[in-house]
Specification:
With 146 residues, this protein is mostly helical. It is built from four helices and no strands. The protein has helices spanning 3-40, 51-70, 79-104, 110-145.
C-alpha cells in the first residue's frame, strides 16, 4: 500500500474515532457520569473542566487505539478483532485510572472505578469499530476508483 493511501486511511480512522469518542463521551458525561460523580464524589469535583489534560488524554488514547487496534492498512483485522481489542484497551486505560484513584484518593468509591472501567471498554471498543469501518470504506472507494 502506498504511503499516501495509508496516510489517508489513518486520517479517516482518526477523524471517525474522534467524532465517535466525542459524541459518545459527551453523552455519557452529560447524561449519567456527571450525576454519579456529583452524588458519590462531590469532594473531588472541580468547578470547571480543565480542557488541556482532557485533550491530551483523548489525543494520546485515540492515536494509541488507532495504532494498536484499528491498524489502518492491515486488511486482516475484522470488525470483531477491533471491537474486542478496543474494549480490552479501554478497560485497561479506564481501569488503570479508576482503580488507582480508588487506591490512593480519600473516599473514592470502588463502584465509580468499576463503572468507569466498563465505560472505557464500551467507548474504546466502539471507537475502534467505527474507525476501522471508516478505513474499510476509504479502501473500498479507492478500489472502485482504481
Amino acid at each position: 500500500m502506498s504511503r499516501k493511501k495509508l496516510t489517508s486511511q489513518w486520517l479517516k480512522a482518526l477523524g471517525a474515532g474522534a467524532v465517535t469518542a466525542g459524541v459518545m463521551d459527551a453523552a455519557w458525561i452529560g447524561g449519567a457520569a456527571l450525576k454519579i460523580y456529583e452524588s458519590k464524589i462531590p469532594h473531588l469535583m472541580a468547578d470547571s473542566v480543565n480542557v488541556l489534560p482532557a485533550a491530551l488524554f483523548y489525543t494520546v488514547h485515540l492515536a494509541g487505539t488507532t495504532y494498536l487496534v484499528v491498524r489502518p492498512g492491515d486488511e486482516t483485522r475484522t470488525h470483531l478483532d477491533r471491537l474486542r481489542d478496543g474494549a480490552v484497551l479501554g478497560v485497561i486505560a479506564w481501569g488503570t485510572f479508576g482503580l488507582t484513584n480508588a487506591a490512593v484518593l480519600d473516599r473514592f468509591p470502588l463502584s465509580i472505578a468499576l463503572v468507569d472501567t466498563v465505560w472505557g471498554g464500551v467507548l474504546t471498543g466502539t471507537v475502534a469499530l467505527v474507525a476501522g469501518k471508516a478505513t474499510e470504506i476509504s479502501r473500498a472507494k479507492k478500489s472502485e476508483g482504481a
